[in-house]
């Protein structure tokens, strides 16, 4: 006698399908929750980063204004500028809530002004000799000096390197004017961007024509400005300057070693009107760097000539 086979009750299959569907829905819900949480975390991180960026930028700008105030107060102390004054001491890293700030002020008139090469005044001969000596100390060839002179000259007759600029990649035009920042010299014939850090220690770009402050010039610039002042005599000169800054060119002349004579005194000075403020502000993981050229004229409050925030 054949035994009759019975089919599985339909409610068991339905119950299994419902369980699988429930598991799938639970997995989907978990994935949605994780996705929402991840998106919310990214949004929160983005908001915090933008907040830190804004706060760090505000700190950097406030520090530039601090530099203006320091220079304004310094002007009231007298017309002589030296490395013994408060503005010359760096602001060390100061911890703040969730960040820090630090900065320094550098006297740009203690460096050679490359824009002076474009001057047609009678002082240009001494300026060229001085900058040639600085370039030589950096290993830059004489051809670079000629190229820089042509780049910043406004003389319409100086056009002997137009072909080089036209053939550059990408093609560009020679400036034929004073440049605003030293970084712009990276596009000048004979200057490589890799050379700018070394050049920045001895050279700058200021409106022509500026004098060189012998109280703040670094050793390499002093040696170029005062021929014959080198080695131990240069060291002794700097030590003397540190103890007692020069108050005038007459004071400088009186205290120079006997064998050293001053070049054209119209190219030298003991006071400055152009300073570079450099600030680093941090908030959280965000870092903002600000650089500002501050111009200080006699009897006027210091002003920001240009400012770069990175």
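^ Assign residues to that structure.
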């Amino acid at each position: 006698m054949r035994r009759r086979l019975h089919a599985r009750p339909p409610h068991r299959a339905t119950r299994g399908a419902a369980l699988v569907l429930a598991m799938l829905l639970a997995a989907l819900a978990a994935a949605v929750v994780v996705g929402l949480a991840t998106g919310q975390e990214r949004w929160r991180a983005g908001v915090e980063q933008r907040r830190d960026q804004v706060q760090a930028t505000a700190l950097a700008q406030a520090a530039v204004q601090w530099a203006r105030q320091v220079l304004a107060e310094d002007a009231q102390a007298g017309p002589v500028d030296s490395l013994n004054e408060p503005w010359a001491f760096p602001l060390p890293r100061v911890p703040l809530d969730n960040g820090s700030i630090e900065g320094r002020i550098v006297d740009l008139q203690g460096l050679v002004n490359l824009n002076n090469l474009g001057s047609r005044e009678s002082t240009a001969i001494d300026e060229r000799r001085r900058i040639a000596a600085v370039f030589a100390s950096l290993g830059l060839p004489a051809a670079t000096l000629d190229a820089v002179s042509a780049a910043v000259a406004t003389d319409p007759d100086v056009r002997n390197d137009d072909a080089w600029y036209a053939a550059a990649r990408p093609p560009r035009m020679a400036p034929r004017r004073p440049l605003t920042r030293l970084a712009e010299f990276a596009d000048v014939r004979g200057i490589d961007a890799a050379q700018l850090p070394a050049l920045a220690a001895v050279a700058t770009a200021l409106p022509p024509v500026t004098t060189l402050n012998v109280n703040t010039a670094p050793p390499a610039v002093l040696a170029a400005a005062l021929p014959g002042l080198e080695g131990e005599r240069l060291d002794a000169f700097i030590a003397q300057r540190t103890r007692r800054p020069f108050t005038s060119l007459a004071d400088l002349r009186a205290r120079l070693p006997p064998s050293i004579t001053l070049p054209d005194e119209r190219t030298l000075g003991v006071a400055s009107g152009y300073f570079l403020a450099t600030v680093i502000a941090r908030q959280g993981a965000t870092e903002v760097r600000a650089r500002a050229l501050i111009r200080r004229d006699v009897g006027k409050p210091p002003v920001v000539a240009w400012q770069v925030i990175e």
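The mean pLDDT is 87.
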